[in-house]
Specification:
Structural class: mainly alpha
Strand content: under 5%
Number of helices: 7
Largest sheet: 2 strands, antiparallel
Oligomer: single chain
Number of strands: 2
Strand order of the largest sheet: 1-2
Order of helices and strands: HHHHHEEHH
Length: 228
């Protein structure tokens, strides 16, 4: 066997590990797709001027669901079923039911879900490094999730990026989404200590310029309140 073939075999991703990433990503996409589908179907919730935006995001998330289901099925597995989500977050958002007066809460949840998605996909990249096809699909979704996050954050009057580990005005139970975003070391380099750090805003600019990954365990803890 040629040397390069042996090396490729040694570095091949564990199929069960890749499948676990795909099922995990599908659960997140089910959450987002279901959330926006329910929001768009709710009478009087989303103002006319914002319906194109949220309708487009819904369509993107639905497409992500379909694509991930296809990737899972192609591996001979059954895609995880969509659960019945609890958007009150086990009572942390009492009374939230997509009512006509709850648009601000809807937008806040959209921001939380999109910010989670960006970091969640980033956190799984290492498990897909030798599975190029799946890695490409994951990164293709990841960048769109980042576009969603910036768009929703701007719609709420926030920066399109995260500053430090600030959750802005989101409820305290969402803090896990932002923990660790104040990291100022990249590739072993202390960004804020560089000689020209003042040109990009020091610690503030350094934290804003980089997004950090979330582990599967961290993301599971974040979305657990929304699961049955």
């Amino acid at each position: 066997m040629p040397i390069y073939s042996t090396k490729s075999a040694m570095l091949a991703a564990d199929p069960a590990d890749v499948l676990d990433v795909l099922q995990f990503a599908l659960l997140l996409e089910h959450l987002e797709a279901d959330f926006y589908t329910r929001g768009m179907a709710a009478s009087g919730l989303i103002p006319t001027e914002d319906r194109v935006l949220f309708g487009t995001i819904r369509d993107h998330e639905t497409t992500h669901v379909t694509a991930l289901q296809g990737l899972i099925t192609a591996r001979g597995a059954t895609p995880v079923a969509k659960p019945t989500f609890d958007y009150t977050a086990k009572g942390a958002l009492p009374g939230f039911n997509f009512g006509a007066t709850q648009y601000e809460t809807f937008k806040a949840l959209a921001m939380a879900f999109e910010d989670t998605g960006v970091r969640a996909y980033k956190g799984q990249v290492g498990r897909l490094m030798t599975e190029k096809g799946v890695l490409n699909a994951a990164l293709a979704i990841h960048s769109v999730e980042a576009r969603h996050a910036a768009e929703v954050r701007r719609l709420r009057g926030k920066k399109g990026w995260i500053t430090g580990n600030s959750r802005d005005d989101l409820p305290a139970f969402t803090q896990g989404i932002y923990d660790g975003e104040d990291t100022l070391t990249q590739g072993g380099v202390a960004i804020a200590s560089l000689p020209n750090a003042s040109t990009f805003g020091g610690a503030t600019g350094g934290s804003e310029a980089f997004d950090e990954p979330l582990t599967k365990e961290q993301v599971t803890a974040i979305i657990l309140p929304f699961l049955p």
